[in-house]
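Field reference: sequence -> structure
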Amino acid sequence: MAWTDVVGVVGVIMILAAYAAATMGRLDVKGALSLSANAIGATLILLSLSVDFNLSAAIVEGVWALVALVGLVRLGVRRLRAGPRQAS
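Structure field:
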C-alpha cells in the first residue's frame, strides 16, 4: 500500500469517526473537534487524490474541507467577540 493510500484511509476514518460520534450524540457537529476532524480528514483525502486523481472525489472533498474551515473560522470569530473568559 502506497503512503498516499494510507493518508487517504486515515482521512476517511477521521471523517467517518466524527460523523458516527455526531450521529450518536457524542460530538457537537458545530464544535471545534468535529470541524477539525472533517477539515483534516478531507485534506488528507485530497492529498491522496494527488496521485490517483478523481475529479468528482476532489470536488466533494474540497467542498467538505472548505465548509469545515468556514465553520472553524466562524467559531473562532464568535469566541473572539465573546472576549476572554474570567476565572471564578
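Note: The chain is about 75% helix and 0% strand.
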